[in-house]
Amino acid sequence: MKQRILSAVVMIAILLACLLISDVTRVLLFMACTILACHEMKNALAKLDCHVRIWSVYALVLGTCAAVWVGLDKVGGYAFPACMLLMLGVFSEMVVTERFTVRDLFATFGVYVYPLSPLMLVMYISIATRPAAGGGSVYIWPAVFINSILPCVVSDTFALFGGKAFGKHKLAPHISPKKTVEGLICGLVMGTLSGFLTHIILKGTGLELIPMWAAVLSAFVASVSGAVGDLAASSIKRAAGIKDYSNLIPGHGGIMDRIDSELFAIPIVYMIYAMFI
Q: In the chain, where are the structural domains located?
């Protein structure tokens, strides 16, 4: 337990430092997280005899980061053609060298979609701005991250306690035998209610970007997305026969074990914010 707590403290300190220092540190943080998460996914899929062409994944990560520096408005314009070129390169490698199979090919494309794409969206959100009322611009990420991460944490915590106290019906025993329907309901209710706390925090710190009802809706969406994200990551681990994606973080597992809920929650909550800003 001491090791787990110490690791959590160190993780939070590094995360806050990278988020608060500058755009550069935020981009570097999410670039590192993406590379590590993709590497962990590659190793997990290898257990299923699916061998990801990781060079193309890393190339797409670096290319997207470079596009961010060119300009946020050009990210989509560069990322999609770059993705197509890399897919062409992977197809060409398979045809010419015969070093890997169609199974490996689509495993590679799968990593493009998950976890690479959500993490690249999170990186985009971390440096995106909107015009401020008094002139200039303000960052979007503090509001989006708080309105995503807090409900995920609250929902996960109360799902655990609710499951222990009231759990009778298994939610997805083939994926996670301990999760229950009752625990999920407790988590979703408390995660949604945390939207009120989120709105109060954002309003008190001058970071309010959306009305209270939208903050509560975002909290509900984050709680649902977090639950699905957790089960999605767990399903891959169970299929691969592993407990954790890696042992990178003592007491916590790998990067994927720590961000599985937020991978879906942050981009989807950002979509709600985008309707208001």
A: 1-125, 128-277
